[in-house]
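WARN no homologs supplied; continuing
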Amino acid sequence: MKKFMSVVVAILMVFGIFAGTTKVFAANDNVPSSYEQGSSLITGVIDLSRSVKSEGSEVTKDGKLYYEGIVSGSVEASDLFEGAYEKYIADIKGKSTGGKQWDHLVMFDKGQKFPTARFTVYLPNNFEVNSDEITFSENTVMVSKIEKSYNPANNSVTFTFNLGNWNDYKGFFELYEKEKGETGHSITINIPYSVEIKDSSVSNLGTISSDGKCELYKKVLFWEQKIVDITATKLNLDVIR
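OK structure emitted
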């Protein structure tokens, strides 16, 4: 993931409620994204296909043949957030929406929970995943925490990325400014898996897929209003021997 996930988030956050037209841009060629602005909601899509991959090799254990691989993603914070930051500086910083300054709107999930972005990887049912071997890391102030959860019902792994530290938009992009133009601030995920090769004539062992989501809200009197709805394009990775 050349900076997974999520980000999207920042981009999301930044765009909220402006009435308008469709905005399309790429923060970086590795992470193309597009956004459409409505009167009260920004929707968008981010493409992480150049940042997520699956690699592996065949091994023999106890007389049986297996394919062991790793689904991995790595993305730089600067790649993910640069476009959002530039949009913030050009059109949002110091501006007002609904009588309130954008800069001072606090980011949050539904239920006024901590703002997050989520990325889920789905593996074929016959692929074995040891949740204890899943690893992840973040080296950016824009992501304060990553959590993983494994769902055995559909053999999927979901990563939840906490965005910033209960920041308003101004505070979040001040975090970006601390790392602007720098490398070495990546977010990474690694999911090891294995599958037994029972039919030596089969070359395609299955398809690993993934998707992502980020939804952000603002408070309006006694209720909440969604102002950001961003998805990561569904990816399909064929596992070929």
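Confidence is low (pLDDT under 50) at residues 1-27.
OK
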